[in-house]
Give the backbone structure.
Amino acid sequence: MNKKICIVQLADSNYYQDRKNCVDSVRKYCVEHNIEWDGLVGTLNKETHIAYQKPLALMRKIEDYDYVGWIDMDIAIANKGFDLHAYLDSKKSDVVICRDPSFFNNDTANSGVVFFRNTDISKQILQEWWDSRVPGTDKHWRHQYKGASGDADQHFLNTILKKYNIVAQDPHDLNIHPKNFKVGDFAIHFMGHKPIDFDRFVEHANKHISKQELLEKYWMVYGFQSWNLIDRFYEEGRQNLMSTNKYNPEDILAAAEKLVDIEVPH
């Protein structure tokens, strides 16, 4: 009997190596919940930038599962007890995707986490998303389409989802920015940040935190201190004046341990 959910991840080797602790958190979640994990390093299509290959990777798996989903490699699981299958079933949608995790006042969906139900509509959306790709690998993937909000493949997907009246969900459901994290959120998306800002924190959580309540308080403390940072967007070449280097995972964990027995309104 096939597993009901498959989570797909894909990146080139350099991108993966810098974010492998995030990937480990996703892989371990899949093992604990009997979810198939299909992590790939390399390319599925040499004529297309790897950033446009999400739908291709998903189409390879959708026939064999109730749901096939994509999770970016700069995302870590924060709620290890989250019942993903029950959540997806509750939405009764061909595509489950959330609004952008750092900006709540728009209807732009973020493709960092997206799940497709095994339906004809989902398969059609995936095919149209793949067909919309920009061929070639010689241009920066964020700037291959004028008028795109963020990366161009996400812009194309948003256009297709609106055509099929797919409504984006609350970012707290599946795909939240660390600054906006609250207890119960499924996954944290370190979008736009260099691994130096988050990877060692994810590694520390993977190795040293087993209890869910402590893990959530750990990420809550991390989110609080990140409010004081000027964001660093590595794709644009800009850097912040402060860095999470001034903090360390041990200090964040120590603060979280003090909060375990305290109900924090967040």
